[in-house]
């Protein structure tokens, strides 16, 4: 059932990890949510079911954020289902470890395609669609401040995202739409754990003064701040949410 004053958010990459936590948090804050995902229909449907179980409204929409037609469909389906759009969170992302070598170009292309081209498309469509009071929130990464070996493609993609955020905030002059990025430190999700030994995980976790990994909900709270009325004067910023790692 539609609530009075219901607002609407698209969250990309919301079948799992940080995007899922953002979708649940924004739903708890009274948003209807479009749950975007790449291929994991079962997990996306679980996010939707969890939102609906607490009385919220949600819709799962499959679509590759790097595909312009899929992004167009994502926004159209949201308008058809919910009739308006207030907030767009682009959490869809991939991380592939690859040293900067001539034979790792494929990892570079794939990472840039999802993380940077995808951000361009989602942010551009959000800019076209949102009205006054709208919020655009991208996901960067605090690993930019560390320059670890093997993170070249990933860091390049996220440095690009941070650039887009600042330029778009300026391009939207006069429209009362904020554009920001949240840049998490290491967070306990599948993206972070993939390919790491327990020892590597422990070493990275120990880098923050809190000596632990972040939890998806801790990132979602920062996103919700930017999406809510208390974040209205924050614009063109990169909010590092990492327990003090960098
Ligand atoms: P996960 O791997 O847990 O989840 C990734 C999500 O993105 C899934 O929902 C996946 O869908 C979706 N996705 C992947 N590729 C695409 C695509 N091309 N189009 C649409 N959806 C896609 O990742 P996290 O939650 O950890 O990461 C979320 C964001 O946070 C990313 O941008 C990441 O770079 C950033 N980040 C993560 C950190 C961490 O330590 N975890 C640290 C800093 C930043 P499906 O389930 O269908 O595959």
TrEMBL record:
Keyword flag Chaperone: no
Spell out the InterPro entries in the cross-references. Answer: KR_dom, NAD(P)-bd_dom_sf, SDR_fam
User: SMART domains recorded for this chain?
Assistant: PKS_KR
Q: Identify the species of origin.
A: Modicisalibacter muralis
Q: Name one GO molecular function term.
A: oxidoreductase activity, acting on CH-OH group of donors
Q: Does the keyword Transmembrane apply?
A: no
The UniProt entry, under SUPFAM superfamilies, shows:
NAD(P)-binding Rossmann-fold domains
What protein is this chain from?
A: 3-oxoacyl-[acyl-carrier protein] reductase
Q: Where is the Ketoreductase domain?
A: 7-185
What are the UniProt keywords, alphabetically?
Answer: Oxidoreductase
Q: What family name appears in the similarity comment?
A: Belongs to the short-chain dehydrogenases/reductases (SDR) family.
């Amino acid at each position: 059932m539609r609530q009075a004053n219901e607002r609407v958010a698209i969250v990309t990459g919301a079948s799992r990890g940080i995007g899922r936590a953002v979708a649940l948090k924004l739903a708890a804050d009274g948003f209807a949510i479009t749950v975007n995902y790449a291929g994991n229909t079962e997990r996306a449907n679980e996010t939707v079911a969890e939102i609906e179980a607490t009385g919220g409204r949600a819709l799962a929409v499959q679509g590759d954020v790097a595909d312009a037609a899929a992004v167009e469909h994502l926004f159209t389906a949201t308008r058809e289902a919910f009739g308006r759009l207030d907030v767009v969170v682009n959490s869809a992302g991939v991380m592939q470890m690859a040293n900067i070598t001539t034979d790792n170009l494929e990892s570079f292309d794939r990472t840039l395609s999802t993380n940077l081209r995808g951000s361009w498309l989602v942010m551009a469509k959000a800019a076209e669609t949102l009205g006054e009071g709208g919020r655009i929130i991208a996901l960067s990464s605090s690993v930019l401040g560390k320059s670890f070996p093997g993170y070249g493609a990933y860091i390049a993609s996220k440095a690009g995202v941070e650039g887009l955020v600042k330029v778009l905030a300026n391009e939207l002059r006069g429209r009362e739409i904020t554009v920001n990025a949240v840049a998490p430190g290491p967070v306990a999700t599948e993206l972070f754990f993939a390919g790491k030994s327990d020892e590597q995980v422990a070493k990275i976790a120990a880098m923050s003064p809190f000596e632990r990994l972040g939890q998806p909900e801790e990132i979602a709270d920062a996103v919700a701040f930017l999406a809510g009325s208390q974040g209205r004067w924050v614009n063109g910023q990169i909010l590092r949410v990492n327990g003090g790692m960098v």
